[in-house]
Design goal:
The chain is mainly beta and about 500 residues long. It has helices at about 5-10, 20, 25-30, 120-125, 260-265, 385-390, and strands spanning about 60, 65, 75-80, 100-105, 110-120, 145-150, 155, 165, 175, 190-195, 200-205, 210-215, 225-230, 240, 245-250, 255, 270, 275-285, 290-295, 295-310, 310-320, 325, 335, 340-345, 350-360, 365, 380-385, 405-415, 420-425, 435, 450-460, 465-470, 480-485, 495-500. The longest helix has 7 residues, at about 385-390.
Length: about 500
Protein backbone atom coordinates (compact mmCIF):
# COMPACT_ATOMS: atom_id res chain seq x y z
CA UNK A 1 0.00 0.00 0.00
CA UNK A 2 1.23 3.47 -0.80
CA UNK A 3 2.24 5.68 2.08
CA UNK A 4 -0.74 7.85 3.07
CA UNK A 5 -0.68 11.26 4.71
CA UNK A 6 -3.65 13.52 5.40
CA UNK A 7 -2.87 15.37 2.19
CA UNK A 8 -3.08 12.20 0.10
CA UNK A 9 -5.79 10.47 2.12
CA UNK A 10 -8.26 13.14 3.13
CA UNK A 11 -7.66 15.66 0.36
CA UNK A 12 -7.37 13.23 -2.52
CA UNK A 13 -10.21 14.70 -4.58
CA UNK A 14 -8.15 15.81 -7.56
CA UNK A 15 -8.16 12.35 -9.06
CA UNK A 16 -11.86 11.66 -8.62
CA UNK A 17 -13.20 9.75 -11.57
CA UNK A 18 -15.39 6.86 -10.50
CA UNK A 19 -18.93 7.68 -9.42
CA UNK A 20 -18.34 5.90 -6.14
CA UNK A 21 -15.40 8.13 -5.34
CA UNK A 22 -17.42 11.21 -6.16
CA UNK A 23 -20.03 10.22 -3.62
CA UNK A 24 -17.48 9.31 -0.98
CA UNK A 25 -18.28 5.58 -0.97
CA UNK A 26 -15.77 2.90 -0.16
CA UNK A 27 -14.75 0.59 -2.96
CA UNK A 28 -16.93 -2.32 -1.84
CA UNK A 29 -19.97 -0.05 -1.51
CA UNK A 30 -19.39 1.41 -4.95
CA UNK A 31 -19.30 -2.01 -6.57
CA UNK A 32 -22.59 -2.96 -4.94
CA UNK A 33 -24.54 0.02 -6.32
CA UNK A 34 -26.78 -1.12 -9.20
CA UNK A 35 -26.79 0.72 -12.50
CA UNK A 36 -29.96 2.60 -13.34
CA UNK A 37 -31.57 5.96 -13.82
CA UNK A 38 -29.60 8.91 -12.50
CA UNK A 39 -31.67 10.86 -9.97
CA UNK A 40 -31.32 14.49 -9.00
CA UNK A 41 -28.86 14.98 -6.18
CA UNK A 42 -29.07 17.38 -3.33
CA UNK A 43 -26.32 18.11 -0.87
CA UNK A 44 -27.69 18.46 2.67
CA UNK A 45 -24.36 19.55 4.15
CA UNK A 46 -24.15 22.47 1.70
CA UNK A 47 -27.74 23.66 2.21
CA UNK A 48 -29.98 25.20 4.84
CA UNK A 49 -28.36 25.44 8.26
CA UNK A 50 -25.12 23.97 6.85
CA UNK A 51 -24.73 26.38 3.92
CA UNK A 52 -21.25 27.92 4.09
CA UNK A 53 -20.86 31.66 4.47
CA UNK A 54 -18.83 33.48 1.86
CA UNK A 55 -17.44 36.47 3.75
CA UNK A 56 -15.38 37.27 6.80
CA UNK A 57 -17.30 39.85 8.84
CA UNK A 58 -16.35 42.21 11.64
CA UNK A 59 -19.02 44.08 13.61
CA UNK A 60 -18.78 46.16 16.78
CA UNK A 61 -21.22 47.04 19.59
CA UNK A 62 -23.66 44.30 18.77
CA UNK A 63 -27.37 44.76 19.58
CA UNK A 64 -28.62 42.76 22.54
CA UNK A 65 -32.05 41.66 23.73
CA UNK A 66 -31.95 41.24 27.52
CA UNK A 67 -28.88 41.91 29.63
CA UNK A 68 -25.47 40.28 29.31
CA UNK A 69 -24.17 39.25 32.76
CA UNK A 70 -21.30 41.56 33.65
CA UNK A 71 -19.25 38.65 34.97
CA UNK A 72 -19.01 37.19 31.44
CA UNK A 73 -15.71 38.66 30.26
CA UNK A 74 -14.08 36.75 27.45
CA UNK A 75 -14.68 35.25 24.03
CA UNK A 76 -17.11 32.57 22.92
CA UNK A 77 -15.52 30.80 19.95
CA UNK A 78 -16.79 27.98 17.79
CA UNK A 79 -15.03 26.13 14.97
CA UNK A 80 -16.55 24.32 12.03
CA UNK A 81 -16.10 23.44 8.36
CA UNK A 82 -16.83 26.26 5.91
CA UNK A 83 -15.77 25.16 2.44
CA UNK A 84 -13.95 27.79 0.41
CA UNK A 85 -13.95 27.89 -3.39
CA UNK A 86 -15.82 24.63 -3.99
CA UNK A 87 -16.05 23.89 -7.71
CA UNK A 88 -17.78 20.50 -7.72
CA UNK A 89 -20.22 19.60 -4.93
CA UNK A 90 -19.75 15.92 -5.78
CA UNK A 91 -16.24 16.18 -4.38
CA UNK A 92 -17.42 17.73 -1.14
CA UNK A 93 -17.55 16.18 2.30
CA UNK A 94 -18.71 18.17 5.32
CA UNK A 95 -15.75 17.05 7.45
CA UNK A 96 -13.28 18.47 4.91
CA UNK A 97 -14.46 22.07 4.68
CA UNK A 98 -11.84 24.62 5.62
CA UNK A 99 -12.07 25.59 9.28
CA UNK A 100 -13.79 28.86 10.16
CA UNK A 101 -13.92 30.22 13.70
CA UNK A 102 -16.86 32.40 14.77
CA UNK A 103 -16.37 34.54 17.85
CA UNK A 104 -18.15 37.06 20.07
CA UNK A 105 -16.24 39.23 22.54
CA UNK A 106 -18.11 40.03 25.78
CA UNK A 107 -16.90 42.56 28.33
CA UNK A 108 -18.58 44.46 31.17
CA UNK A 109 -22.10 43.67 30.00
CA UNK A 110 -21.47 44.57 26.35
CA UNK A 111 -21.03 42.55 23.18
CA UNK A 112 -17.96 44.35 21.87
CA UNK A 113 -17.54 42.52 18.59
CA UNK A 114 -18.30 39.61 16.33
CA UNK A 115 -15.76 38.16 13.94
CA UNK A 116 -15.57 35.10 11.71
CA UNK A 117 -12.26 34.06 10.19
CA UNK A 118 -11.01 31.15 8.12
CA UNK A 119 -8.04 29.38 9.68
CA UNK A 120 -5.18 30.47 7.43
CA UNK A 121 -3.58 27.25 6.28
CA UNK A 122 -1.37 27.47 3.21
CA UNK A 123 -4.25 26.36 0.98
CA UNK A 124 -6.68 28.89 2.48
CA UNK A 125 -4.10 31.65 2.12
CA UNK A 126 -3.64 30.72 -1.54
CA UNK A 127 -7.40 30.68 -2.20
CA UNK A 128 -7.73 34.11 -0.58
CA UNK A 129 -4.79 35.47 -2.55
CA UNK A 130 -2.69 36.02 0.54
CA UNK A 131 0.92 35.08 1.35
CA UNK A 132 1.64 32.20 3.71
CA UNK A 133 4.50 32.95 6.09
CA UNK A 134 7.17 30.31 6.47
CA UNK A 135 7.44 26.75 5.15
CA UNK A 136 4.27 24.74 4.56
CA UNK A 137 3.84 21.90 7.08
CA UNK A 138 3.92 18.38 5.67
CA UNK A 139 0.29 17.64 6.51
CA UNK A 140 -1.21 21.10 6.41
CA UNK A 141 -4.94 21.65 6.91
CA UNK A 142 -7.20 24.48 8.09
CA UNK A 143 -8.23 22.83 11.37
CA UNK A 144 -12.04 22.75 11.44
CA UNK A 145 -13.16 20.70 14.44
CA UNK A 146 -12.45 22.44 17.75
CA UNK A 147 -11.01 25.59 19.23
CA UNK A 148 -9.67 25.58 22.80
CA UNK A 149 -7.84 27.81 25.25
CA UNK A 150 -4.44 26.55 26.32
CA UNK A 151 -2.15 28.49 28.67
CA UNK A 152 -2.94 31.89 27.21
CA UNK A 153 -3.13 30.65 23.63
CA UNK A 154 -6.08 29.90 21.34
CA UNK A 155 -5.62 26.64 19.43
CA UNK A 156 -7.72 25.21 16.59
CA UNK A 157 -7.69 21.42 16.44
CA UNK A 158 -8.00 18.65 13.86
CA UNK A 159 -7.47 14.92 14.15
CA UNK A 160 -5.28 12.52 12.17
CA UNK A 161 -2.54 14.62 10.65
CA UNK A 162 -2.14 18.38 10.94
CA UNK A 163 -0.64 20.39 13.75
CA UNK A 164 -2.94 22.77 15.64
CA UNK A 165 -3.15 26.31 14.31
CA UNK A 166 -2.85 29.14 16.84
CA UNK A 167 -5.08 32.23 16.64
CA UNK A 168 -4.68 35.60 18.31
CA UNK A 169 -7.37 37.38 20.29
CA UNK A 170 -8.87 38.88 17.11
CA UNK A 171 -9.05 35.42 15.47
CA UNK A 172 -6.19 36.10 13.07
CA UNK A 173 -3.95 33.08 12.43
CA UNK A 174 -0.56 33.16 14.13
CA UNK A 175 0.74 29.86 12.71
CA UNK A 176 1.04 26.19 13.58
CA UNK A 177 1.70 25.20 17.18
CA UNK A 178 3.81 22.20 18.25
CA UNK A 179 4.00 22.54 22.04
CA UNK A 180 7.46 24.09 22.10
CA UNK A 181 8.79 21.77 19.41
CA UNK A 182 7.82 18.57 21.24
CA UNK A 183 4.87 17.44 19.05
CA UNK A 184 5.76 15.67 15.83
CA UNK A 185 2.84 15.12 13.52
CA UNK A 186 -0.71 14.20 14.27
CA UNK A 187 -2.78 15.61 17.10
CA UNK A 188 -6.47 15.30 18.02
CA UNK A 189 -9.77 17.14 17.75
CA UNK A 190 -10.68 16.38 21.37
CA UNK A 191 -8.26 17.10 24.17
CA UNK A 192 -9.01 16.66 27.88
CA UNK A 193 -7.55 19.20 30.30
CA UNK A 194 -7.35 18.10 33.92
CA UNK A 195 -7.45 21.22 36.07
CA UNK A 196 -6.18 19.26 39.08
CA UNK A 197 -2.98 17.99 37.48
CA UNK A 198 -2.51 20.74 34.89
CA UNK A 199 -2.07 18.07 32.20
CA UNK A 200 -3.54 18.16 28.71
CA UNK A 201 -4.36 14.69 27.36
CA UNK A 202 -4.92 13.54 23.78
CA UNK A 203 -5.45 10.29 21.87
CA UNK A 204 -4.22 10.46 18.28
CA UNK A 205 -4.53 8.20 15.26
CA UNK A 206 -3.26 8.08 11.67
CA UNK A 207 -4.09 5.80 8.71
CA UNK A 208 -0.45 4.72 8.34
CA UNK A 209 -0.07 3.57 11.97
CA UNK A 210 -0.55 0.14 13.53
CA UNK A 211 -1.36 1.82 16.85
CA UNK A 212 -2.93 4.90 18.41
CA UNK A 213 -1.09 7.20 20.79
CA UNK A 214 -1.95 8.61 24.18
CA UNK A 215 -0.17 11.93 24.61
CA UNK A 216 0.32 13.88 27.83
CA UNK A 217 1.33 17.55 27.74
CA UNK A 218 2.71 18.62 31.12
CA UNK A 219 2.17 21.78 33.12
CA UNK A 220 5.08 23.46 31.34
CA UNK A 221 3.32 23.04 27.97
CA UNK A 222 5.63 20.35 26.58
CA UNK A 223 4.81 16.84 25.42
CA UNK A 224 5.99 14.78 28.36
CA UNK A 225 4.85 11.25 27.58
CA UNK A 226 3.66 9.19 24.60
CA UNK A 227 2.18 5.72 25.01
CA UNK A 228 1.54 3.59 21.93
CA UNK A 229 -1.54 1.38 22.05
CA UNK A 230 -1.48 -1.37 19.39
CA UNK A 231 -4.68 -1.67 17.30
CA UNK A 232 -5.57 -3.44 14.07
CA UNK A 233 -7.05 -1.98 10.87
CA UNK A 234 -6.23 1.70 11.58
CA UNK A 235 -9.51 2.66 13.27
CA UNK A 236 -10.86 6.18 13.57
CA UNK A 237 -10.71 7.44 17.18
CA UNK A 238 -12.41 10.82 17.18
CA UNK A 239 -12.77 11.18 20.95
CA UNK A 240 -11.81 9.39 24.17
CA UNK A 241 -12.47 9.63 27.91
CA UNK A 242 -10.33 10.52 30.91
CA UNK A 243 -10.80 9.79 34.61
CA UNK A 244 -8.65 10.56 37.62
CA UNK A 245 -6.89 7.20 37.19
CA UNK A 246 -7.53 5.99 33.64
CA UNK A 247 -7.58 6.75 29.93
CA UNK A 248 -10.48 5.15 28.05
CA UNK A 249 -10.26 4.51 24.29
CA UNK A 250 -13.01 3.32 21.96
CA UNK A 251 -11.98 0.92 19.21
CA UNK A 252 -14.99 0.97 16.87
CA UNK A 253 -15.55 -0.63 13.43
CA UNK A 254 -14.86 2.50 11.38
CA UNK A 255 -11.47 1.76 9.85
CA UNK A 256 -9.19 3.02 7.11
CA UNK A 257 -10.23 1.79 3.65
CA UNK A 258 -7.10 1.60 1.47
CA UNK A 259 -9.06 0.76 -1.68
CA UNK A 260 -11.26 3.81 -1.23
CA UNK A 261 -8.19 5.96 -0.66
CA UNK A 262 -6.60 4.70 -3.88
CA UNK A 263 -9.79 5.63 -5.75
CA UNK A 264 -9.66 9.16 -4.32
CA UNK A 265 -12.52 8.97 -1.82
CA UNK A 266 -12.58 12.22 0.18
CA UNK A 267 -12.90 10.37 3.51
CA UNK A 268 -11.62 6.80 3.05
CA UNK A 269 -12.97 5.33 6.27
CA UNK A 270 -15.63 2.62 6.11
CA UNK A 271 -17.75 0.54 8.44
CA UNK A 272 -15.81 -2.70 8.86
CA UNK A 273 -18.07 -5.51 10.06
CA UNK A 274 -15.03 -7.74 10.62
CA UNK A 275 -13.47 -5.33 13.14
CA UNK A 276 -14.45 -6.01 16.77
CA UNK A 277 -15.94 -3.23 18.89
CA UNK A 278 -13.96 -2.74 22.11
CA UNK A 279 -13.49 -0.41 25.04
CA UNK A 280 -9.92 -0.10 26.30
CA UNK A 281 -8.90 1.05 29.77
CA UNK A 282 -5.30 2.05 30.55
CA UNK A 283 -3.75 3.72 33.57
CA UNK A 284 -2.99 7.38 32.94
CA UNK A 285 0.73 6.78 33.53
CA UNK A 286 0.81 4.07 30.86
CA UNK A 287 1.03 0.30 30.95
CA UNK A 288 -1.06 -2.51 29.47
CA UNK A 289 -4.56 -1.88 28.14
CA UNK A 290 -7.50 -3.99 29.31
CA UNK A 291 -9.95 -4.56 26.47
CA UNK A 292 -13.67 -5.19 26.90
CA UNK A 293 -15.72 -6.41 23.94
CA UNK A 294 -19.20 -4.97 23.27
CA UNK A 295 -21.79 -5.24 20.51
CA UNK A 296 -21.16 -3.08 17.41
CA UNK A 297 -22.06 0.57 17.91
CA UNK A 298 -20.74 3.94 16.77
CA UNK A 299 -19.32 6.06 19.59
CA UNK A 300 -19.50 9.76 18.80
CA UNK A 301 -18.56 12.06 21.71
CA UNK A 302 -17.76 11.89 25.41
CA UNK A 303 -19.66 14.02 27.91
CA UNK A 304 -17.36 13.07 30.80
CA UNK A 305 -16.03 10.09 32.75
CA UNK A 306 -15.07 9.26 36.34
CA UNK A 307 -13.99 6.43 38.66
CA UNK A 308 -16.49 4.83 41.03
CA UNK A 309 -16.23 1.70 43.21
CA UNK A 310 -13.91 -0.32 40.96
CA UNK A 311 -15.65 0.88 37.79
CA UNK A 312 -15.09 3.49 35.13
CA UNK A 313 -18.27 5.41 34.28
CA UNK A 314 -18.50 7.13 30.88
CA UNK A 315 -21.39 9.27 29.61
CA UNK A 316 -21.36 9.57 25.84
CA UNK A 317 -23.39 9.89 22.64
CA UNK A 318 -23.77 6.95 20.26
CA UNK A 319 -25.38 5.96 16.97
CA UNK A 320 -26.64 2.48 16.04
CA UNK A 321 -24.52 0.25 13.84
CA UNK A 322 -23.58 0.51 11.04
CA UNK A 323 -22.48 4.13 10.78
CA UNK A 324 -20.99 5.45 7.53
CA UNK A 325 -18.59 8.32 8.18
CA UNK A 326 -18.10 8.82 4.44
CA UNK A 327 -21.84 8.88 3.69
CA UNK A 328 -23.88 6.91 1.20
CA UNK A 329 -24.92 9.19 -1.61
CA UNK A 330 -24.67 12.37 0.48
CA UNK A 331 -21.88 14.78 1.31
CA UNK A 332 -21.51 13.90 4.97
CA UNK A 333 -21.98 11.07 7.47
CA UNK A 334 -24.92 8.69 7.19
CA UNK A 335 -26.56 6.97 10.16
CA UNK A 336 -29.10 4.14 10.24
CA UNK A 337 -30.75 5.70 13.29
CA UNK A 338 -30.62 8.70 15.56
CA UNK A 339 -28.09 9.50 18.26
CA UNK A 340 -28.76 9.08 21.97
CA UNK A 341 -27.08 9.73 25.29
CA UNK A 342 -25.83 6.62 27.06
CA UNK A 343 -23.89 5.62 30.17
CA UNK A 344 -21.29 2.87 29.86
CA UNK A 345 -20.01 1.43 33.13
CA UNK A 346 -16.79 -0.54 32.72
CA UNK A 347 -16.68 -3.02 35.60
CA UNK A 348 -12.96 -3.62 36.14
CA UNK A 349 -13.55 -6.32 38.77
CA UNK A 350 -15.88 -8.51 36.72
CA UNK A 351 -14.54 -7.70 33.24
CA UNK A 352 -17.71 -6.41 31.58
CA UNK A 353 -19.36 -3.26 30.27
CA UNK A 354 -22.90 -2.31 31.27
CA UNK A 355 -24.63 -0.04 28.76
CA UNK A 356 -27.68 2.04 29.62
CA UNK A 357 -29.62 4.62 27.64
CA UNK A 358 -29.95 7.88 29.57
CA UNK A 359 -31.96 9.79 26.98
CA UNK A 360 -33.07 8.47 23.59
CA UNK A 361 -34.06 11.78 21.99
CA UNK A 362 -31.78 12.74 19.06
CA UNK A 363 -28.95 14.89 20.46
CA UNK A 364 -25.27 15.56 20.02
CA UNK A 365 -22.26 17.57 21.22
CA UNK A 366 -22.40 16.70 24.96
CA UNK A 367 -20.60 19.07 27.32
CA UNK A 368 -19.88 19.29 31.03
CA UNK A 369 -18.64 21.92 33.44
CA UNK A 370 -14.98 21.85 32.32
CA UNK A 371 -13.68 22.04 35.88
CA UNK A 372 -15.04 18.50 36.37
CA UNK A 373 -13.35 16.78 33.43
CA UNK A 374 -12.18 13.36 34.74
CA UNK A 375 -14.13 13.80 38.01
CA UNK A 376 -17.69 12.91 38.96
CA UNK A 377 -20.31 15.22 37.47
CA UNK A 378 -24.03 15.67 37.95
CA UNK A 379 -25.05 17.83 34.99
CA UNK A 380 -24.48 17.65 31.25
CA UNK A 381 -25.61 19.74 28.28
CA UNK A 382 -26.48 18.61 24.76
CA UNK A 383 -27.91 20.14 21.58
CA UNK A 384 -30.75 18.85 19.41
CA UNK A 385 -30.60 20.29 15.89
CA UNK A 386 -33.32 19.04 13.56
CA UNK A 387 -31.34 19.67 10.37
CA UNK A 388 -28.30 17.83 11.73
CA UNK A 389 -30.37 14.76 12.56
CA UNK A 390 -32.19 14.88 9.22
CA UNK A 391 -28.92 15.24 7.29
CA UNK A 392 -27.45 12.18 9.01
CA UNK A 393 -30.50 10.18 7.93
CA UNK A 394 -30.23 11.23 4.28
CA UNK A 395 -29.19 8.32 2.07
CA UNK A 396 -29.20 8.92 -1.69
CA UNK A 397 -30.95 12.28 -1.52
CA UNK A 398 -34.06 11.35 0.48
CA UNK A 399 -35.20 13.61 3.31
CA UNK A 400 -37.27 12.97 6.44
CA UNK A 401 -40.44 15.05 6.96
CA UNK A 402 -39.82 18.67 7.99
CA UNK A 403 -41.43 18.14 11.37
CA UNK A 404 -39.73 14.82 12.17
CA UNK A 405 -37.25 16.38 14.60
CA UNK A 406 -37.04 19.47 16.80
CA UNK A 407 -34.52 22.08 17.89
CA UNK A 408 -33.61 22.38 21.53
CA UNK A 409 -30.88 22.70 24.13
CA UNK A 410 -31.03 20.02 26.83
CA UNK A 411 -29.78 20.01 30.41
CA UNK A 412 -29.37 16.57 32.00
CA UNK A 413 -29.51 15.99 35.74
CA UNK A 414 -27.72 12.65 35.82
CA UNK A 415 -28.17 12.23 39.56
CA UNK A 416 -31.95 12.47 39.46
CA UNK A 417 -32.32 11.09 35.94
CA UNK A 418 -34.27 14.12 34.71
CA UNK A 419 -33.95 16.61 31.86
CA UNK A 420 -34.83 20.22 31.26
CA UNK A 421 -35.46 21.20 27.65
CA UNK A 422 -35.11 24.72 26.31
CA UNK A 423 -37.22 24.42 23.18
CA UNK A 424 -36.44 26.42 20.08
CA UNK A 425 -38.68 27.19 17.09
CA UNK A 426 -38.63 25.48 13.74
CA UNK A 427 -35.66 26.64 11.71
CA UNK A 428 -33.73 27.72 14.83
CA UNK A 429 -30.81 25.32 14.47
CA UNK A 430 -28.81 25.13 17.69
CA UNK A 431 -25.09 24.52 17.95
CA UNK A 432 -23.13 23.04 20.83
CA UNK A 433 -23.95 24.54 24.25
CA UNK A 434 -20.92 25.37 26.41
CA UNK A 435 -21.20 25.80 30.17
CA UNK A 436 -19.59 28.95 31.59
CA UNK A 437 -19.23 29.26 35.39
CA UNK A 438 -20.58 32.43 36.96
CA UNK A 439 -17.29 32.86 38.82
CA UNK A 440 -14.36 32.79 36.42
CA UNK A 441 -12.14 31.43 39.21
CA UNK A 442 -14.39 28.38 39.50
CA UNK A 443 -15.70 29.21 42.97
CA UNK A 444 -19.34 28.58 42.04
CA UNK A 445 -21.58 27.44 44.88
CA UNK A 446 -23.04 24.66 42.76
CA UNK A 447 -21.94 22.69 39.69
CA UNK A 448 -24.58 24.42 37.53
CA UNK A 449 -24.04 27.94 38.90
CA UNK A 450 -23.40 29.66 35.60
CA UNK A 451 -24.60 29.91 32.03
CA UNK A 452 -25.10 27.72 28.98
CA UNK A 453 -24.23 29.60 25.81
CA UNK A 454 -24.69 28.59 22.18
CA UNK A 455 -25.09 29.98 18.69
CA UNK A 456 -28.70 29.60 17.53
CA UNK A 457 -30.05 30.52 14.12
CA UNK A 458 -32.81 33.14 14.06
CA UNK A 459 -35.02 32.20 11.09
CA UNK A 460 -36.79 35.57 11.13
CA UNK A 461 -33.54 37.50 10.69
CA UNK A 462 -31.70 34.90 8.64
CA UNK A 463 -28.74 35.34 11.00
CA UNK A 464 -27.45 33.87 14.25
CA UNK A 465 -27.88 34.89 17.87
CA UNK A 466 -25.54 34.14 20.74
CA UNK A 467 -28.04 32.79 23.26
CA UNK A 468 -27.14 33.00 26.96
CA UNK A 469 -29.22 30.81 29.31
CA UNK A 470 -29.04 30.77 33.09
CA UNK A 471 -28.15 27.15 33.75
CA UNK A 472 -30.27 27.09 36.92
CA UNK A 473 -33.27 28.49 35.00
CA UNK A 474 -32.70 26.48 31.88
CA UNK A 475 -36.24 26.48 30.48
CA UNK A 476 -36.77 30.19 31.17
CA UNK A 477 -36.27 33.06 28.78
CA UNK A 478 -32.64 33.64 27.78
CA UNK A 479 -30.76 36.05 29.98
CA UNK A 480 -29.55 37.67 26.76
CA UNK A 481 -29.57 37.26 23.00
CA UNK A 482 -26.69 38.87 21.14
CA UNK A 483 -27.76 39.52 17.56
CA UNK A 484 -24.99 38.74 15.07
CA UNK A 485 -24.74 40.33 11.62
CA UNK A 486 -24.58 37.01 9.76
CA UNK A 487 -25.18 33.28 9.88
CA UNK A 488 -23.17 30.77 11.88
CA UNK A 489 -23.55 27.50 9.94
CA UNK A 490 -24.04 24.30 11.89
CA UNK A 491 -20.55 23.13 12.72
CA UNK A 492 -18.60 21.36 15.41
CA UNK A 493 -17.09 22.42 18.74
CA UNK A 494 -16.17 25.53 20.67
CA UNK A 495 -15.04 27.01 23.98
CA UNK A 496 -15.51 29.91 26.31
CA UNK A 497 -12.15 31.64 26.66
CA UNK A 498 -12.26 33.77 29.79
CA UNK A 499 -10.12 36.87 30.16
CA UNK A 500 -6.98 36.25 32.17
Amino acid sequence: MAEHTRRTVLRGTAGLAAAGALTGLGASETAARPAGKVTARHYPFLEGAFAPVTEELTAFDLPVTGRIPRELNGRFLRNGPNVLGLEDPRAHHWMLGEGMVHGVRLRDGRAEWYRNRWVRSAQVARKLGLPYPGPVPQEDFACNTHVIPYRGRILTLQESGPLPYELDGDLDTVGTYDFQGTLEGTFTAHTKFDVHSGELHAVTYHPAWDHVRHLVVDGAGRLARTTRIPVADAPMMHDFALTERYVVVFDIPVTFDAAAAEQGAPVPYSWNRHHPTRVGVMRRDGGPVRWFGIEPVFFSHTLNAYDEDGCVVVDLTTYPAPFHVAGRGSDGPYARGTSKLERWTVDLRHGRVRQRVLDDRPQEFPRVNESLVSRRHRYGYTAAAAELTAAYLTPDGGTPPDDAFSNALVKHDLLRGTTEVHRLPRGAAAGEAVFVPRDAAGRQAAEDDGYAIAYVHDPDRGAADLVILAAQDFTGEPVARVHLPGRVPLGFHGSWIADA
